[in-house]
Design goal:
112 residues; mainly alpha; single chain; 5 helices
Length: 112
């Protein structure tokens, strides 16, 4: 569970949800799953990861390319923001335990 440092309350919403849902709808489920799988693979080694380092400078021919080309229509700034939100959703689902994991992951994955 993620908790706000300021309020000590659980974080139950997706930050910048309106933008996230717009970008998410522009990715296919297959594209999103590939992005999420790559994030999980890279985080799986247990080392601390800095989100900006994961996709690198060139997203060509990687699972992250559709963020730039499809979701954000070649907008580099929007792509970085979109990647950060996908990373946030992925980290949240990786770290959560219990029956709510599937519900939370579905909310991020569906863009609904």
């Amino acid at each position: 569970m993620l908790i706000s440092v300021e309020t000590l309350e659980p974080i139950t919403h997706i930050p910048n949800e309106r933008e996230y849902r717009y970008w998410r709808k522009r990715l296919t489920d297959e594209q999103y799953s590939a992005i999420e799988s790559e994030i999980e693979r890279r985080m799986g080694d247990g080392e601390v990861q800095t989100a900006g380092w994961i996709p690198g400078d060139d997203w060509s021919n990687t699972p992250f390319e559709p963020i730039y080309s499809d979701a954000c229509e070649y907008d580099a700034v929007a792509s970085g923001l979109c990647f950060g939100l996908i990373m946030w959703c992925s980290c949240r689902s990786i770290r959560m335990r219990g029956p709510s994991v599937a519900t939370k992951r579905t909310a991020c994955r569906s863009g609904a």
